[in-house]
Amino acid sequence: MPMLLIKGSFHLKDTQPDGDTVHFTADNPDDWQLVGGKNPIQLTAASHALRLEGIDAPETHYHGAHQPLQQAHAAAAELLKWLGFTNVQREPDETVTASTPASTPGYILTRGADMYGRVIALVGKGNPPGTSGTDISVGVPLLKQTANHHLVSTGLAYPTFYRSLFADLRAELTTAAQQAQTAGKGLWPDDVTTSGVKITGLSSITDEAVILPKLFRRLVDFLKLGMPITSFPAYLAGKEDKFTVLSTGQRFAGLHEVVDVSNGSTVRMTHPADDLLFDEG
Fold this sequence. Notes:
- By secondary structure, the protein is of the alpha+beta class.
- It folds into 2 domains: about 1-180, CATH 2.40.50.90; about 190-280, no CATH class.
- The protein is built from 7 helices and 17 strands.
- The strands form 5 sheets. It has a 5-stranded mixed β-barrel. Strands 11-17-13-14 form a 4-stranded mixed β-sheet, with no helix packed on it. A 3-stranded antiparallel β-sheet has the order 12-16-15, with no helix packed on it.
- The radius of gyration is 18 Å and the shape is globular.
- The two termini are about 20 Å apart.
- About 40% of the residues are buried.
């Protein structure tokens, strides 16, 4: 899989990194102009927000809400530790005020940005495996050297796939996630994405149940509308998330096709995260 390699450094101060988002500064700012894809990247500061490809970690902050903080903070802490940061100091709103060191060297591998202008990337530390500003072939051995793979293999993040990620890399992340789940690592002993969570209010998903972050974000937005949970499938249909169920090859527009609401208040997904392939926004 060809991906653009950019060499640079990771920075935390005055940002809100979590388990799948961190800021990165390119050594050569001109390299940003080489990022492909249909979505333009947003360069509003010296460092740029990255979204880690192929994974989704529990939310530490999303529209004023968060997922259970034990799991959310564990993922965030592990990413920063893996990148080489220690003594990370944060404000209550998750903003970093200081860290040791202030930055760490590394590189990213990318094919484009998301709809919000964040570069979607595989994240590596230390010396890059090629020349910055050039496309290199990324296979499973290189994927295993990334933070993306590390977070999934430790069970601290869910695999979450978009079409920009090639099949061999998806397969490896799926295997790593399933091994972590079988071993009871990280968030998996608490995950109720497919078994179901009884929704009695926002606290059901912010303080109690651990679920796929994509489902969590949809539930947060829905619950703030004050509608009965039985209307959640109709709400999802209106969002028209486009995806394919990998095990069947079926294509759908709307998560209501794989989300079930039963007994008036219990929400669950009928397929695990690694069985879904989403279209880019």
